[in-house]
Structures are given as C-alpha cells and as structure tokens.
Design brief:
By secondary structure, the protein is an alpha/beta fold. The protein contains 16 helices and 9 strands. The strands form 2 sheets. The chain has a 7-stranded parallel sheet with strand order 1-4-5-6-7-8-9. Helix 15 runs parallel beside helix 16. The longest helix has 25 residues. It is globular, with a radius of gyration of 19 Å.
C-alpha cells in the first residue's frame, strides 16, 4: 500500500497529475447513497451497520475511480462513545445533551472505554481493507478536539462557536479537561482504525478558524501535534493529514509545528500563496471551492486547471476546500476528474 499514488504524494513525491479524492465523497449527492441511507432507516444506523457503511464508502470509488476512499462515519460518534446522548433532527442536523459545566465533563468516560460503542466502525474498516482495490488506500478520520468540543458544549452546530468560546473563557480548567478527554479519545479511536486497516488518517478541525491568537496554538495546533505524535509513535510511518479550516496565514508552518505530513487548505486560501508558504513544508491538499460541484461548466474546468498548475512544483493531493454539498451534480465530479487527469 505504501506504493499507491496517494501515499507517495503524502510522503513528498511530486506528480504531474496529483492523486484526487473529495471530502464527503461518500454522501448525499449520490443517488446510490440515498438508496442505501433509506435502507438503513436513519443516519446513525447507517454509521453503525458495517456492511452498509462500507457500501457507502465504496460507491464513489466504483463510480469515479478516486485515488483514495475515506471511511464513512461521523465526527460525533466519539462524543457518543464518551457517554453523550446523540440524535439527528431531520433537516436540522445533530443534537447532543450539552456538556457545559465541570460536573458534566467529569462524567465523560475515559478514552479506553470508547471501543465497545465504536466497534462497528472498526468492523467497517476491516471490510473495506478486504474489498477496496489494492491501489486505493483507505483514509480513517476523526474530528479535531476543538471542533468536536464545540458541538459537545453547545449540543448542536452553531454559526460562531459562541457557546464553546464562552465556556472556554468562563471555566478554562473545565474546558481544558474536556479538550484533554477528547484528545485522548481521538488518539484511541484513530489508532484502532489503523489497527483495523486504515492506511492514512485525517484530523478535521472544521472550526479552527474561530480560534484567535494564543487560543489557536493551544486548542488547534497543540492537540493536532499531540495526536499526530501519539499515532506516529504507535504506528511508525503512518501519514497524517491535518485540516485546520479557516486558519488563514496560520496554515504556514503547520506541517513543522504539528508533524503532519499533509496540510489541507480551504477554498478561501489563495493557491499561489499556499504554494509558497505551505507547500514548502510538505504535501498540500485542496482547495477547489465545493460550489463548483454544483455549478460546473467552464468555470469548474478553469479552476481545476488553475489549482493543478499552482501546486505543480510540490507534493499535492487534489481535493475540495471543504465537503461536497448535497446539491452537487455527480456529472460535475466526473468533469472535475476528467479535467484534472487530461493530458
């Protein structure tokens, strides 16, 4: 598996045509996903039914021939495994009972107790390690501690992560206890995915951009560094992709600061700037705007070519700047790959 195109890019090899996959490539824009989701009955049942979760993961590989598969799961399975109630409201998203004081944080399970709840996810990984083509590595993933904590504290997604910032400022000790608990659980969870067969892991910090100054260092950079170091100690040679979405200029030096092999950048980051200030530290992933998967056309073709050219001088994994949206057209995904791989 170390010889696959993705793995070589993550280790610094430069390709004329970079390997490509998409965040949320196994998802709601595909009719075959919708059919499988209906068969499962509800979202959590889909996540926790290994045969169906594996099927969803395989669907975009069959349809498009991506250079990597990403495990189908959800970042909020970790809070559930820590003992939180989790449910999904149709049309609105996830809900949790908020962990918003010291007592509730103290009641969370220790990291070593998460595996019973998450065992179906590990079984999904084992199925995929058998069924994926040999040239298609499997990416395991988890949410970064800050991003996961924002949902745990608010009990839902919020536009500005205000409840998490308020808790952090009002009771720093309790907040940091929560961050430590989630960090330990994330290490345990990702390590178990690797043991089950994942060849790469990605840490999604979708709300890193709301952290400013020293808070970014303490609650985005340092947890990524700790998780990466622990995983590489347990699994020597494991490639790690870090995605501190919205980091802006703080993307620079993120490789060196965390030990990540690849830094994923969002669509708001200028590709030429990233080539000069991020790619000089290692592999870069990104950064096509997901809106092009909806609108398509010549603008999509031009943007794919522009990004490929911008990152031509160093290791690059072609991807979106965030997850593909449910209103995306699968034909535009095919056009993206066709353009990327043109002679």
């Amino acid at each position: 598996m170390a010889e696959t195109k993705l793995m070589r890019a993550l280790r610094g090899e430069v390709h004329e045509v970079p390997p490509a996959w998409m965040m949320r490539q196994a998802g709601r824009y595909l009719p075959e996903y919708k059919a499988t989701r209906e068969k499962a009955g509800d979202f959590l049942s889909l996540c926790y039914t290994p045969e169906l979760a594996a099927e969803v993961t395989l669907q975009p590989i069959r349809r498009f021939g991506f250079d990597a598969a990403i495990l189908f799961a959800d970042i909020l399975l970790v809070p559930q495994a820590l003992g939180m109630d989790l449910w999904f409201v149709t049309g609105e998203g996830p809900r949790l009972e908020p962990v918003d004081d010291h007592r509730k944080v103290a009641l969370l399970k220790p990291a070593e107790d998460i595996h019973e709840t998450l065992s179906p996810v590990y079984e999904t990984v084992r199925i995929l390690s058998r069924e994926l083509p040999r040239d298609v590595p499997l990416i395991g993933f988890a949410g970064a501690p800050w991003t996961v904590a924002t949902y745990m504290i608010a009990g839902r997604g919020t536009p500005d992560q205000g409840p998490a910032h308020a808790f952090k400022n009002a009771d720093t000790a309790a907040f940091e206890m929560l961050m430590a608990r989630v960090t330990d659980a994330t290490i345990a969870y990702l390590s178990a995915q690797v043991e089950a067969g994942a060849q790469v892991v990605k840490i999604f910090d979708s709300w890193a951009g709301s952290l400013q100054g020293e808070d970014f260092v303490r609650y985005a950079l340092e947890p990524a560094k700790k998780i990466t170091a622990a995983l590489k100690h347990r699994h020597p040679g494991l490639p790690v992709i870090a995605f501190p979405r919205g980091a802006g200029e703080k993307y620079a030096d993120f490789h060196a600061a965390t030990g990540a092999d690849c830094v994923a950048i969002d669509q708001d980051t200028d590709a030429a700037w990233a080539a000069a200030h991020v790619q000089n530290g290692g592999c870069v992933q990104g950064n096509l705007n997901p809106a092009h998967m909806v609108t398509g056309g010549q603008a999509l073709v031009d943007e794919v070519r522009r990004i490929r050219e911008a990152f031509r001088g160093g290791p690059h994994v072609f991807n979106l700047g965030h997850g593909i949206t449910p209103d995306a057209d699968p034909d535009n995904v095919a056009l993206m790959l066709e353009t990327l791989r043109e002679g």
